[in-house]
Amino acid sequence: DWYGFLDKIKTRDLSGKTVALFGCGDSESYPDTFCNALGTIYEELQPTGCRFVGAYEPQDYAVTYSGVCRDGKFVGLAVDELNEDDKTAARTDRWIEAVKRELS
Questions:
Q1: What is the pLDDT of residues 57-87, one digit of tens each?
Q2: How large is the angle between the packed helices 2-9 and 36-45, nearest 10 degrees?
Q3: CA angle 47-17-64, nearest 5°?
Protein backbone atom coordinates (compact mmCIF):
# COMPACT_ATOMS: atom_id res chain seq x y z
CA ASP A 1 0.00 0.00 0.00
CA TRP A 2 1.21 3.51 -0.73
CA TYR A 3 0.75 4.67 2.86
CA GLY A 4 3.37 2.13 3.94
CA PHE A 5 5.71 3.36 1.23
CA LEU A 6 5.08 6.96 2.24
CA ASP A 7 5.80 6.12 5.89
CA LYS A 8 9.18 4.70 4.84
CA ILE A 9 10.23 7.41 2.40
CA LYS A 10 9.24 10.35 4.58
CA THR A 11 11.94 9.38 7.07
CA ARG A 12 14.70 9.59 4.43
CA ASP A 13 16.98 12.49 3.67
CA LEU A 14 15.94 13.50 0.18
CA SER A 15 18.07 16.65 0.05
CA GLY A 16 19.13 17.29 -3.51
CA LYS A 17 16.30 15.18 -4.95
CA THR A 18 13.69 16.70 -7.23
CA VAL A 19 10.07 15.54 -7.02
CA ALA A 20 7.23 16.20 -9.47
CA LEU A 21 3.81 14.93 -8.40
CA PHE A 22 1.00 13.76 -10.65
CA GLY A 23 -2.15 11.79 -10.08
CA CYS A 24 -5.70 11.16 -11.15
CA GLY A 25 -9.08 11.48 -9.55
CA ASP A 26 -12.77 12.06 -10.10
CA SER A 27 -13.52 15.77 -9.76
CA GLU A 28 -17.23 15.41 -10.43
CA SER A 29 -18.09 12.72 -7.87
CA TYR A 30 -15.48 13.76 -5.29
CA PRO A 31 -14.84 17.50 -5.63
CA ASP A 32 -13.80 17.93 -1.99
CA THR A 33 -11.16 15.21 -2.22
CA PHE A 34 -10.09 15.43 -5.87
CA CYS A 35 -6.44 14.28 -6.02
CA ASN A 36 -6.03 14.69 -2.26
CA ALA A 37 -3.28 12.06 -2.32
CA LEU A 38 -1.01 14.56 -4.08
CA GLY A 39 -1.51 17.02 -1.26
CA THR A 40 -0.86 14.30 1.31
CA ILE A 41 2.39 13.24 -0.36
CA TYR A 42 3.44 16.88 -0.68
CA GLU A 43 2.83 17.53 3.03
CA GLU A 44 4.47 14.32 4.21
CA LEU A 45 7.62 14.86 2.15
CA GLN A 46 8.15 18.48 3.17
CA PRO A 47 10.55 17.61 6.02
CA THR A 48 12.72 15.38 3.78
CA GLY A 49 14.52 18.26 2.09
CA CYS A 50 13.41 17.37 -1.43
CA ARG A 51 12.70 20.07 -3.99
CA PHE A 52 9.22 20.06 -5.48
CA VAL A 53 8.61 21.14 -9.07
CA GLY A 54 5.43 21.25 -11.09
CA ALA A 55 3.12 23.40 -8.98
CA TYR A 56 0.81 25.41 -11.21
CA GLU A 57 -2.28 27.56 -11.22
CA PRO A 58 -5.22 25.33 -12.11
CA GLN A 59 -6.64 26.67 -15.35
CA ASP A 60 -9.86 25.27 -16.73
CA TYR A 61 -10.60 23.09 -13.69
CA ALA A 62 -14.04 23.06 -12.07
CA VAL A 63 -12.48 21.98 -8.75
CA THR A 64 -9.71 24.06 -7.18
CA TYR A 65 -10.31 23.68 -3.46
CA SER A 66 -9.37 20.08 -2.64
CA GLY A 67 -6.23 18.83 -0.91
CA VAL A 68 -4.18 19.09 -4.10
CA CYS A 69 -4.38 22.89 -3.85
CA ARG A 70 -1.94 24.93 -1.75
CA ASP A 71 -1.83 28.72 -1.86
CA GLY A 72 -3.94 28.84 -5.02
CA LYS A 73 -1.81 26.33 -6.93
CA PHE A 74 -2.01 22.61 -7.50
CA VAL A 75 1.08 20.88 -6.08
CA GLY A 76 1.22 18.61 -9.12
CA LEU A 77 -0.62 17.55 -12.24
CA ALA A 78 -4.19 16.52 -11.43
CA VAL A 79 -5.89 14.46 -14.12
CA ASP A 80 -9.56 13.54 -14.42
CA GLU A 81 -9.85 11.03 -17.26
CA LEU A 82 -13.38 10.11 -16.23
CA ASN A 83 -15.03 13.51 -16.59
CA GLU A 84 -12.53 15.74 -18.39
CA ASP A 85 -10.55 13.42 -20.65
CA ASP A 86 -10.76 15.98 -23.46
CA LYS A 87 -8.59 18.35 -21.38
CA THR A 88 -5.91 15.88 -20.28
CA ALA A 89 -3.53 16.28 -23.22
CA ALA A 90 -3.45 20.08 -23.03
CA ARG A 91 -3.11 20.05 -19.23
CA THR A 92 -0.30 17.51 -19.40
CA ASP A 93 1.53 19.48 -22.08
CA ARG A 94 1.29 22.72 -20.05
CA TRP A 95 2.47 20.94 -16.91
CA ILE A 96 5.43 19.29 -18.65
CA GLU A 97 6.52 22.63 -20.09
CA ALA A 98 6.27 24.24 -16.64
CA VAL A 99 8.39 21.45 -15.12
CA LYS A 100 10.97 21.82 -17.88
CA ARG A 101 11.21 25.56 -17.21
CA GLU A 102 11.74 24.93 -13.50
CA LEU A 103 14.48 22.40 -14.22
CA SER A 104 16.38 24.54 -16.68
A1: 998 898 888 999 999 999 999 999 999 999 9
A2: 20
A3: 65
